[in-house]
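The records we work with from here on pair a chain with its fold. A complete example follows; check for yourself that the lines match position by position.
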Amino acid sequence: MTPVEPAVPDRPGDPWDHKVANGLAFLRRRLSGDYEVDEFGFDPDLTDAVFHPLLRLLYRDWFRTEVSGVEHVPVDGPALVVGNHSGTVALDALILSAALHDKHPAHRYLRLLGADLVFRMPVVSELARKTGGTVACNPDAERLLGGGDLVGVFPEGFKGIGKLYANRYKLQRFGRGGFVSAALRTGTPIVPVAIVGGEEIYPMLADIKPLARLLKLPYFPVTPTFPWLGPLGMVPLPSKWLIEFCPPIPTAHLTDSADDPLVVFNLADQVRETIQQTLHTLLERRPDPFGP
């Protein structure tokens, strides 16, 4: 008897088979409670299965991101990753986190420090916690660094993401250098990182300050597409991104100077200058913001 050929040939290497299998395994873990969440609310299983795949579409396919210098990020142990902030909406922090995880040989997670406003917003707060974020305060930063984590901070804060497009890639003031104090107290190396591309995703042409005060927001942006196109105005423009990690700055020899304002200021200024100079170099490599 001649064997009957299956209507659909069995292809064990089919990527869709793996995706379906991984999806079912993820659902099984969630339903059975077979996953871990740390004291800050970080859920690695949810981050790997849901958030990073979505961000991967953005940084790899939409922004065509190139990452260099990842060898400067330690394979294990703590480090404080300090970057420039931009883009009207803080996508740069999320893109940096996902790209670092994918490109680093140890696939390390970046624990982002966020502003108080982020953790006062009901849905956003929960998502930030699930992906490893916590409030930008020294006690939390020191606990994470003391536990051997990579911690990401953007010292410009809202001044960085809320600046006008005319001031693109000009670093704003780094606050009081609290991130330096956290690094000094734990003897943690500081890894500056420069991000080019975020300034063009929502070019901020104006800030309607009365409306921002009414809505209790740090700024209310006007861009070429928002608010004119409504929800469509929230689609980021497909700028070309470059991310470069700079050589780490050691702090282990300065642990006794964590409360010395002069040491803190000088180190913060060194980090800021390193990022600014690297931004200039990257901009020369990327003359066309929307090129290939």
Remarks:
- The mean pLDDT is 90.
